[in-house]
Specification:
binds FE2/S2 (inorganic) cluster; about 20% strand; Alpha-Beta Plaits; alpha/beta; 8-stranded mixed beta sheet; binds iron/sulfur cluster; Ubiquitin-like (UB roll); Rossmann fold
């Protein structure tokens, strides 16, 4: 460890720490646009200026390593003046269209100018260089060139993280603009991370832009269930539902990033894609009481009963429903439905995995501990089949064909959170019962590497829906306390690490 003084505060930092990181560790604000903890140092915004004791000239903190006994400050009058000028320089050609900018409310240009800036000079509102306001960079991202401060974070992201090299900075001086190389749109699977790391409102996500003002949204940490990686995210929501996911830093799981596909998982949790109520055959609505009566009758009158599960529910829910089948119903017919067959071992080298089920590992562990679990292809006709359907249907290809292979039983009870139109055409499906999504319950998910991660209730979209544990209790006529979800067993969890450094 190295001892150093930051704005007169004595701290110790690990060897190899950059001075700008030492400022963050010492809880001292420091202006910066181009520096990002996960990218190489560009040193181009010149905002992170500091005075270092014994050094005659100001230095940039992002390109200076801390050494033993170093004393640095950004509180001297000359540094404050330098940073003010730097910020003014970045604003010279900025359009200042904050009222219509999607980044307003979470913009580092606004935040840093309020903290370190000089107060805007109205003469600067004149004579701005005009640039393209709407540049379609690819499937997911739009650029407003006038707002760009040329920090080059987005360019470094595509060259250092995805190594797809779609972006560059073209032209010179105040004509410089970010753009894509000819015939190479920004279509990599991680493109929206450029929007997250853009410190201003220059890059916006097509999915989110103009949808909501960020100050009308709340957010809470959770995970992405788009594949078996389990990236840590913040889910943004209001009373109408969920609007976006953004990655949360967890160096052991997803680093700083998440994929574009995972960002869309929130859609499967909103009303328009949900099974909102209890439905009898062919989509006829019924009450919860009626539905449980039908389910209990179908199960108690059956000689043979089987359960099909995917890897999309929590460990606690699997424990509960599998024990119910094994111990209460005396059925060992429990089958694992791999919804992405043959893709389990695929990995793109960064984050995305071919197994689109977030808890395959957890399910397999529970099944093998109980000596159960066959592949769904081994299922033959039983009297009553209970299927716990996938939460996120987007990756399930040829759903009808997949279902027809194993839904041959006389009576099928479908438990799921997703709206599945195909089920209405299937005569064997006697009953559909709505489940909570993972954003509406507590529980543990085990990712591809065996890391346990807890989820807690973020916001309940469907109040009728139940966690599987509640379903099991109601089937046994036990009382459940709504919104309780499941009790946490004592597991060692790899819960969210800090998200320092995302900006
Ligand atoms: S678009 Fe954003 S991230 Fe890219 S160079 Fe401009 S300001 Fe930086
Ligand atoms: S890599 Fe997997 S877990 Fe991570 S964001 Fe993408 S789909 Fe979600
Ligand atoms: S020069 Fe240090 S953050 Fe930009």
């Amino acid at each position: 460890m190295l001892k150093c003084k930051i704005n007169d505060k004595e701290i110790e930092v690990p060897e190899g720490t950059k001075l700008i990181e030492a400022f963050k560790l010492a809880d001292q604000d420091i202006a910066h646009y181009c520096y990002h903890s996960a990218l190489s140092v560009a040193g181009c915004c010149r905002l992170c200026m500091v005075d270092i004791e014994g050094n005659p000239r100001p230095q940039i903190a992002c390109n200076t390593m801390v050494s033993e006994g170093m004393s640095a400050t950004n509180q001297s009058d000359s540094i404050k003046e330098t940073v003010k000028w730097g910020l003014d320089f970045h604003l010279i050609n900025h359009p200042l269209d904050c009222p219509v900018c999607d980044q307003a409310g979470e913009c580092e240009l606004q935040n840093q100018y309020m903290k370190f800036g000089s107060g805007y000079d109205s003469e600067m509102a004149e004579k701005k260089v005009k640039k393209n306001k709407v540049v379609d960079l690819g499937k997911e991202v739009v650029l407003d060139s006038e707002r760009c401060v040329l920090c080059s974070r987005c360019v470094r992201f595509t060259s250092e993280i995805t190594r797809t090299n779609e972006l560059g900075i073209f032209n010179r001086g105040d004509r410089s603009e970010v753009g894509t190389f000819k015939g190479k749109p920004l279509n990599n699977n991680y493109s929206v991370n450029t929007v997250d790391i853009c410190p201003v409102g220059a890059l916006t996500s097509k999915d989110f832009r103009f949808n909501q003002r960020v100050w009308y949204l709340k957010n809470k940490k959770s995970i992405c269930t788009g594949c078996s990686t389990g990236c840590n995210v913040k889910a943004y929501f209001n009373e109408d539902g969920y609007f976006r996911f953004k990655p949360v830093v967890n160096q052991e799981i997803n680093g700083y990033w998440m994929c574009d596909e995972g960002r869309k998982v929130y859609k499967s949790t909103n009303k328009e894609n949900r099974l909102m109520g209890y439905e009898l055959q062919y989509g006829d609505a019924c009450s919860k009481e009626e539905a449980f009566k039908v389910a209990q009758d179908l199960i108690s009158s059956a000689v043979t009963t089987a359960l099909v599960v995917t890897g999309q529910q929590s460990n606690e829910e699997y424990e509960s429903i599998i024990s119910y089948f094994k111990e209460t119903l005396n059925s060992e017919q429990i089958y694992h439905w791999h919804t992405t067959p043959g893709k389990e071992d695929e990995f793109d080298g960064l984050l995305m995995r071919g197994d689109k089920n977030p808890n395959t590992k957890g399910l397999q562990k529970i099944l093998s501990e109980k000596g159960l679990g066959k592949d769904v292809s081994e299922l033959s006709s039983v009297d009553t089949l209970v299927v716990v359907g996938p939460e996120n249907m987007t990756h399930v290809k040829d759903l009808k064909a997949q279902l027809e292979k194993f839904i041959q039983s006389q009576n099928v009870i479908w438990l799921g959170s997703a709206l599945v139109e195909e089920l209405k055409e299937m005569a064997h499906v006697k009953l559909q019962m709505p489940l909570r999504t993972y954003l509406e319950k507590t529980g543990t998910f085990t990712n591809h590497a065996g890391q346990d991660q807890k989820v807690t209730v973020v916001k309940t979209v469907n109040k009728q829906a139940l966690a599987l544990t509640d379903w099991v209790q109601l089937m046994q006529n036990q009382e459940v306390q709504q919104d309780q979800g499941v009790k946490f067993p004592k597991v060692k969890t790899n819960f969210f690490m800090d998200d320092r450094g995302t900006v």
